[in-house]
Design a protein that fits this description.
The chain is 37% helix and 21% strand. The longest helix is centred in the N-terminal third of the chain and has 24 residues. The protein is an alpha/beta fold. The protein has 15 helices and 24 strands. The mean pLDDT is 96. It has 2 domains: 257 residues, Aldehyde Dehydrogenase, Chain A, domain 1 (3-Layer(aba) Sandwich), CATH 3.40.605.10; 192 residues, 3-Layer(aba) Sandwich (Aldehyde Dehydrogenase, Chain A, domain 2). It has a 7-stranded mixed sheet with strand order 16-17-18-14-13-20-21, sandwiched between helices. A 6-stranded mixed sheet has the order 10-9-8-11-12-23, sandwiched between helices. The protein has a 3-stranded antiparallel sheet with strand order 6-7-24, with no helix packed on it.
């Protein structure tokens, strides 16, 4: 039995989407307006579901990068002089504009990244929610008054903007991951320069229209390749970097920032465990695992990539997991589907190599494992069937890698302790899901699992007020919550003696009775 193939015909871009794609092709968003990119490299942008050309982007020149950085620093100085109240009001207006254009932005994102329309529309809504959250948090928290350590003094901290923040993005959540950082950065008084993924450049450029009412240069977007990112990350006039992407690139960003002690946030990779224990509601857990493993075709940093199932419920869980997976509808994201294509052909080939190696090392193919036979306009799309393999063990190559694709690897475990051991042995530590109603297992999971996030019977959820981030090779720092705001702020300690009194208790000359 195979996955369900969408019977709908491919939906053509709406007039609004076609116009937006033409408007932003080969442009940069600098100084509050779209300008032609003048770099030497031009790249075609293709719909991953059809391989049809949507438009193109062109790299900026070094001079255009310099111009953007200078404009950002000018705008930041103006923005930072506004009161937190004014910044908050402008950010709320920004969220309103985001919501009003949800349908257009979601359509563009579906066309360029392949994600189902619902997932893209949800992404815009979640992004607007983060903007509203930081609009309020940014005006609520600007420092702290401390209980004084010296009589007669006032001692407090001030939270200050860093300056210009560079945000380097992947394609899987191009708007959400941008706004998790950008909203916090703006609320803290910073300017922002966005370097989008090459697989989501047009969507990100089109989204820039929501910033047009802000100070020109406050938010800018420079599509392009690695050279653009290197210029922005290493420039002496950028002051913070927020990066989401691969481990090797994240390490390169960290090394560059270390040269000048530039603050950075790195969200690198994940290979999350999804633990199912005997006390769980098994069909609910299987449906949850299907979602956690195959959301956005598995191209999610918090995807369930290690499905750890207790032997007592293994057969029951696997039957339900396979049934739910085979019911997923595959096709173009603008149709009635659950699963779209992968981002590009290179990613699909990478996943095929990972699967072949796992099977070579002893894994068993349960379902999927091939390119679905989609005809017509979808025949050349970058589709791959949701795949389940079992008989997986920690000595396989797959265990130490991020799959980042539609492959769910299942491990049979004999105890909760074994599940913990397999989870914590991973080089990654982003998140872990546990399905259990055993209070002792729940307590041990939240205390003993080495990860930034733990989901108990509720996989992959985010909360604007709760920090998002990982440990080990999953990265450094946090987005969202108050921690996410402080990621983009310096803390300054101030001590004031209003009477300018002599502090003889520790000034020279030292008292004779305090000498040896």
């Amino acid at each position: 039995m195979s996955n369900l193939l969408s019977s709908d015909t491919t939906t053509r871009p709406s007039t609004a989407a076609s116009g937006a794609l033409r408007e932003v092709s080969d442009r940069l968003f600098i100084g509050g307006e779209l300008v032609l990119a003048r770099g030497a490299r031009q790249v075609e942008v293709r719909d991953p579901a059809t391989a049809y050309t949507l438009g193109s982007f062109t790299d900026p020149t070094d001079d255009q990068g310099e111009h953007a950085i200078a404009a950002a620093n000018r705008a930041q100085r103006i923005w930072n002089t506004e009161t937190p109240l004014v910044r908050s009001e402008l950010m709320h207006e920004l969220a309103v504009r985001m919501r009003s254009d949800t349908r257009l932005f979601a359509e563009l994102m579906t066309l360029e990244t392949g994600k189902p329309f619902k997932e893209c529309a949800d992404e815009i809504k979640w992004s607007a929610s983060a903007v509203d959250y930081y609009a309020e948090l940014g005006r609520h928290s600007v420092g702290t008054i401390h209980g004084t350590a010296t009589a007669g003094q006032t001692q407090y901290t001030i939270k200050e903007a860093m300056g210009t923040a560079v945000i380097v993005l992947p394609a899987n959540f191009p708007i959400l991951l941008m706004m998790w950082s950008a909203a916090a950065a703006l609320a803290a008084g910073n300017a922002v320069i966005v370097k989008p993924s090459e697989n989501a450049s047009l969507t990100t450029l089109a989204f820039m229209r929501v910033f047009e009412e802000l100070e020109p240069g406050l938010v800018q977007c420079l599509p392009g390749g690695a050279a653009v990112a290197k210029q922005l990350v290493g420039h002496r006039d950028t002051h913070m970097v927020a990066f989401t992407g691969s481990v090797p690139t994240g390490q390169a960003v960290a090394r560059t920032c270390a040269g000048s002690f530039k603050p950075f946030l790195i969200e690198a990779s994940g290979s999350d465990s999804f633990i199912v224990m005997p006390s769980a509601a098994i069909d609910v857990a299987a449906r949850a695992a299907t979602f956690a493993a195959f959301l956005n075709c598995g191209q999610v940093c918090t995807s369930a990539e290690k499905i750890l199932v207790h032997e007592d419920v293994y057969d029951e869980f696997m039957a339900a997991f396979v049934r739910h997976t085979r019911q997923l509808r595959i096709g173009h994201g603008l149709n009635r589907v659950d699963i779209g294509p992968m981002e590009n052909e290179r990613e699909r080939q990478r996943v095929e190599v990972l699967l072949a190696r796992a099977l070579e090392q002893g894994a068993h193919l349960i379902t999927g494992g091939s390119r679905p036979e989609l005809g017509g306009e979808l025949a050349d799309g970058y589709f791959y069937s949701p795949t389940i393999i079992d008989n997986c063990t920690p000595d396989m190559d797959l265990y130490t890698q991020e799959i980042f694709g539609p492959i769910a690897a299942v491990y049979k475990v004999s105890s909760f302790q074994e599940a913990l051991d397999i989870t914590n042995r991973s080089p990654f530590g982003l998140g872990t899901t546990l399905y259990s109603t055993d209070i002792m297992e729940i307590d041990r999971a939240q205390r003993e699992i080495v990860a930034g996030m733990i989901w108990i019977n509720a996989p992959l959820l985010d909360n604007d007020a709760g920090p998002f981030g990982g440990r080990k090779l999953s990265g450094v720092g946090r987005q969202l919550g108050s921690e996410g705001l402080d990621t983009f702020r310096h803390t300054k300690l101030v001590m004031v003696d209003p009477t300018s009194s002599e502090q003889s208790f520790w000034w020279f000359p030292y008292a004779d009775e305090e000498s040896w």
